[in-house]
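User: Please predict the structure of the protein below. I'd like the answer in structure-token form so I can feed it into my own downstream comparison script.

Assistant: Understood. Taking the following sequence of 245 residues as input:
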Amino acid sequence: MAEGKNVVVATPENLFYVSDFFGSGVGVVRPEKTLIVTSPMEEERANLTGVEVEVIPAAGSRATRETVEKNLGKGGPCYIDDDSRVRDSKRFVKNEELFLAARRVKDSEEVRRIERASEILDEIFTMLEGELKRGRTEREVAAEVVKTALIAGATTSGFGGSLSPTILASGENGAFPHSELTDRKIRDGDLVISDLTFRYKGYCSDATRTFAVGRVRNPRRRRLATEEALPREVFRPWDWARSRN
């Protein structure tokens, strides 16, 4: 990643990138392997899921930092992706671009995971064509979405703008960019927005689809046709959703 330099990984996403272990801990990147310093309760899982790693247990933030510093090479700066816990040390230099540059290049296994993550979303959208029926609640249908994802090997990713594991907004709820799940029952003529984000073996796929339930009135059909015809760079779906109310 940075030949001849000390590199420390402090965020879960970057730790996963260099080790295939997603969890709490700090990584020390070396040419031959990555050292993972994590809590004793995560030690076994890190050993099971990590690739080309050596796991060192450390209880507490102080012990973690001491263990990391003990395993750094001598001399020179140490590049780190998040310096929020080491700002009192002059040795650590924050360098986010170093990690972003490395992650921009995907190997064949990463591409395979990304493709599979997208395929799972396609499978869920196909399933929704039969599950979105009059009388079913948003929560009931969302449960089928999550179930289908889990069976396929994906997990919910979560989103900072919503408390729901997935967004499934029917009728007037579709006016909210990130609607929470409700017990609203789906009705004939509803447009239902399904905004899904799932993670497959560490890699996310995100997509949105709008479904029409039953017979949709002509004005709404025209809006859907307009949406599909407009170039993506000039169409702002939240403006359209707001205008529906």
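That's the full token string. The chain has a mean pLDDT of 86.
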